[in-house]
Design goal:
2 domains; Glycoprotein, Type 4 Pilin; four-stranded antiparallel β-sheet; mainly beta; elongated; 168 residues; 1 helix; OB fold (Dihydrolipoamide Acetyltransferase, E2P); eight-stranded antiparallel barrel
Length: 168
């Protein structure tokens, strides 16, 4: 599987192939790197590159957004599967549903049903992995419904806000 990854401001093309002991990873068409690892829980992984000692990482994905905490510094970025992205667009994904891809807690809601919002306007904030994540309007829209309340716990995949595009 080929992914376009931007993390900590650095963009890479990453090819990943599952192996018996983990994964074979090639960065920017370079030589393969063997990665061993296992999930410790929903967001914590123990990973080792080549023969190096394993390290604990917290990794969460929210759609194409990625959050990584290596015990020292949190990194944010994106992970895009170009093939899946094109399939989602063809299927009409993202046409009015704002969902979270990781569990967390709703910290703030900045809109109400019936409100009109500009593209990129912050709709609400969800805390996950000790980081506050802003969910923004993907297009100019009217808020049809809020499916969460401030303080509520949300599961991965939860529908947060339903939108309808504003007519131009």
């Amino acid at each position: 599987m080929r992914l376009d990854v931007t993390l900590g401001g650095r963009s890479r093309s990453v090819d990943v192939v599952r192996t018996d002991g983990g994964w074979r990873v090639c960065l920017d068409d370079g030589p393969p790197i063997e990665v061993r690892g296992r999930a410790l829980d929903a967001v914590t992984w123990q990973l080792a590159l080549g023969q190096a000692e394993a390290r604990r990482l917290e990794v969460a994905l929210d759609g194409e957004r990625a959050f990584v905490l290596d015990g020292v510094q949190p990194l944010q970025g994106t992970v895009v599967d170009p093939r899946a992205h094109l399939l989602d667009l063809a299927a009409g994904a993202g046409q009015g549903e704002v969902r979270t891809q990781m569990p967390g807690a709703v910290v703030r809601i900045l809109v109400e049903a019936g409100a009109e919002v500009a593209e990129g306007a912050v709709l609400l904030v969800v805390e996950a992995m000790k980081m506050e994540n802003e969910f923004k309007a993907p297009f100019a829209a009217r808020v049809v419904a809020l499916h969460v309340e401030a303080g509520a716990a949300v599961e991965a995949g939860a529908l947060l806000v339903q939108l309808e595009p504003l007519e131009a």
